[in-house]
Amino acid sequence: MHHKTRVRFAPSPTGPLHIGGVRTALYNYLFAKQQGGDFILRIEDTDSTRFVPGAEEYIRETFDWLNLPFDESPAKGGDYGPYKQSQRKEIYKKYVHNLLDEDAAYIAFDTPEELEAKRAEIPNFQYDASTRDKMRNSLTLTEEEMQALIKEGIQYVVRIKIDPDREIIVDDMIRGRVVVNSSVLDDKVIYKSADELPTYHLANVVDDHLMEITHVIRGEEWLPSAPLHVWLYRSLGWEKHMPQFAHLPLLLKPEGNGKLSKRDGDRLGFPVFPLQWTDPKTDEVSSGYRESGYLPEAVINFLAFLGWNPGTEQEIFSLNELVQAFSFDRCSKSGAKFDVEKAKWYNHQYILRMSDHDLAELFMPVLQEKGISVSVEQAEKVVSLVKERVHFISELWDQSCFFFVAPTTYDEKTVQKRWKQETPEQMKQLSALMAGMDDFSAENQEKTVMDWIQQNQLHTGNVMNAFRLAIVGAGKGPHMFDITGVIGKEETLRRLERAISILQLH
Ligand code: GLU
Q1: In this structure, is the dihedral angle defined by the CA atoms of residues 71, 75, 81 and 87, taken in order, positive or negative?
Q2: Is there a single domain that holds both residue 104 and residue 204?
Q3: Positive or negative, the Cα torsion across 271, 273, 275, 279?
Q4: Cβ(12) to ligand 1 under 6 A?
Q5: How many CB atoms lie within 10 A of CB 105?
Q6: Cα 212 to chain center, whole Å?
Q7: Model pTM?
Q8: Distance of CA 167 to the CA centre of its chain
């Protein structure tokens, strides 16, 4: 029977989502949509000691911003809910009982102190087939002793019973076949009576099964858990319906040595979180891609390439194109080095691909903040002239402020270099020439000024550099006549006049 592809992103709300987690979610999304399947959000919050307020909301906001909608989620609901593990307590209990009834799991009363003592006594102690008969559990206690302890209200855990020396096979779409001997595994705790909650491993497997997840796509750090999960599937009688696994390569530090951490971001000045995050305990603020001026489409394109490549030269992919092109065959096994310059390059590329109108819309609030009131049409003209020079919307102002505000000071170095003895006289003539122009389009200005330069045998560079200094206040900016075309004749003449009067004594 052909099952609909169903994948899930299953974060634990223990803090802001790491950018690596966003990549995991993206690959889930790409694969699901390529297969015409469903992309599900499941919140794995069974470890109440690690719960951080606001973390779940943060996850939702991240995927809203990136425009990667879930088909089912705690907020949206769906046929397989609830989608928050803390709301599924009763479901897990049933499977814990099944495992106990089947002798596939057992109850253990060992206190932390007792476990500590065993660790001190037995070198490389592991709670498993070789040691469980020396511990305090339902395999060594009589039924009466057990019932007495439970009646007394003594807390216990349930451990999975792993038979020794069995072959466990994990077939991974990226790493291939991984074979593990069950003797290396320990009898992991799968349930705690204290909070009546399963641990991550059991909840994860039960939910993947009940939610009919077909592919488990997650970070490489979960690969060591996979054999245990396979064992759980086996113990629960679900082996035939096991999802396919894909463990994604780690995101590495830019230098390539070790996992990318928040400290690397702080050290090298780039965000490792999608959105800005304020730690509810310490009030410490961590920067986010959104607040740093990254466009969501650029972040998606950039993340897609951290661990996958299309096998061609093409680097710019829309989300739709990524959905078409994605494949696990082209995911790398080795870690992906984080490259912030590439992230900036992508942002630049997406800025260039935006329409001038959309760019202007993003620029308008910046202008308003600076107290500049112009029309969107005006802002459109300006962004079209400077967008090639920016990586972020926030850089537009620095590159274009002279369109909106006349210079009051003049860059000293440029003055030394560009404002020569003959300059004031030339600028006066230029001013008169421009005052006489009826057609003030960039093209006509250029033609008229160039003719005038030629007729008077002036030096083009000298004239134009001084002209730029007068209009911009420095030696930067786009094509001169594009600038004057936008600011208009009156403003051009005013600026020329002011530069002549301020700089002529120089
Ligand atoms: N809750 C785990 C996490 O936070 C899920 C791992 C998995 O996808 O199985 O990453």
Answers
A1: positive
A2: yes
A3: negative
A4: yes
A5: 27
A6: 27
A7: 0.91
A8: 38
DSSP 353-391: HS-HHHHHHHHHHHHHHTT----HHHHHHHHHHHGGG-S
* Active-site annotation holder among 262, 337, 342, 428: 262
Atom 10, ligand 1: residue with shortest CA distance: 11
Q: Which atom of ligand 1 is nearest to the CA of 218?
A: 8
Residue 503 placed within a domain = yes
Do 104 and 240 belong together in one domain? yes
Q: Which amino acid is residue 27, in one-letter code?
A: Y
318 & 363 share domain = no
Q: How far is CA 433 from the centre of its chain?
A: 54
Q: How much distance in Å is there from the Cα of 464 to the middle of ligand 1? A: 61
Confidence at residue 224, expressed as pLDDT on a 0 to 100 scale: 95
Q: Model confidence over 392-420: pLDDT tens digits?
A: 999 999 999 999 999 999 999 999 999 99
Asked whether residue 326 falls in the same domain as residue 366, the answer is: no
pLDDT band for 504, please (50, 70, 90 cuts).
confident
Nearest-atom index, ligand 1, CA of 222 = 6
Q: In the annotation, is 262 catalytic?
A: yes
d(CA 56, CA 145): 43
Q: Which of 419, 451, 459, 421 is nearest to 434 (CA)?
A: 451
